[in-house]
Amino acid sequence: MIWRVLAAVGPWWWRRLLLTRLLGYEIHPTARIGLAWFYPRHLVMGPGARVGHLNVAVHLDEVRLGENATIGRSNWVTGFPSGTDSAHFRHQPERRSTLVVGAESAITKGHHLDCTSPIEIGSFVTVAGYRSELLTHSIDIEAGRQHSAPIRIGDRSFVGTGCLLLGGATLPERSVLAARSVLTEAFDEPLGLYGGQPARRLKDIPPDAGYLTRTRGFVD
């Protein structure tokens, strides 16, 4: 516990040494973690990847951040790691508790990601604003047990502020989820604005829209 505290609050060169040597994390020399309690079982950070201050990541099998991917600040990333003795999720032996964030993508601040099953965020994606919830697990009422399913967000998509995404949901590539929407199912038609409670396809998005054609993740 003491070394974890040191790895969370000490100078970055020292923290990086502890994280790579003691935990076997794969952290590119240009990647960086702020003052955060960020301890999945395994962590991979590509070139330029960033984790900001006051993030918490616990009870996860793995977190992978692609090139220049960022997790802003004050996000809560949790899960239920595989290989435990708990009765929860025994009917899903292949389940893994993972978060994958593609190149040039950003999770802003104040969000909650429940990665009991995988959350896969593509490249050039923005999970924007505040207080969105991505919840991969819930109670299966008919079976009377906990159950989980992945959440997927396609490349070059945008999630507005205050959204709720539930297990099994997919936002297609080059699509937008409007603010305060509830995404409960797997859509597969790209280039759409999805919104509502529950969300449905509202209109088309032109393929030449500036957000969809940008060459870097940061939005001016």
Could you characterize what this model shows?
The protein has 220 residues and is mainly beta. The chain has one domain (27-213): UDP N-Acetylglucosamine Acyltransferase, domain 1 (3 Solenoid), CATH 2.160.10. Helices cover 10% and strands 35% of the residues. It has helices at 2-9, 12-22, 210-213, and strands spanning 26-27, 32-33, 37-38, 42-45, 50-51, 56-57, 62-65, 70-73, 76-78, 98-101, 106-109, 112-114, 119-121, 126-127, 133-135, 137-140, 145-148, 151-153, 158-159, 164-166, 170-171, 176-177, 182-183, 192-196, 199-204. Strand 24 (192-196) and strand 25 form a beta hairpin. The relative contact order is 0.10. The model has no long low-confidence stretch (mean pLDDT 95).
Q: What are its keywords?
A:
UDP N-Acetylglucosamine Acyltransferase, domain 1; 7-stranded parallel β-sheet; 25 strands; 10% helix; globular
Number of separate structural domains: 1
Strand order of the largest sheet: 2-5-8-11-14-19-22-24-25
- Distance between the terminal alpha carbons, to the nearest Å? 40 Å
Helix coverage percent of residues? Answer: 10-25%
**Count of DSSP helices?**
3
Based on Cα principal axes, name the global outline. Answer: globular
Rg result: 17 Å
Which class of secondary structure composition applies to the elements? mainly beta
Instruction: Supply the CATH architecture.
Output: 3 Solenoid
Largest sheet: 9 strands, mixed
Low-confidence stretches: none
> Mean pLDDT score, rounded?
95
CATH class: Mainly Beta
Q: Give the strand content.
A: 35-45%
Number of strands: 25
CATH topology: UDP N-Acetylglucosamine Acyltransferase, domain 1
CATH superfamily: Hexapeptide repeat proteins
Query: What string, H for helix and E for strand, traces the elements in order?
Result: HHEEEEEEEEEEEEEEEEEEEEEEEEEH
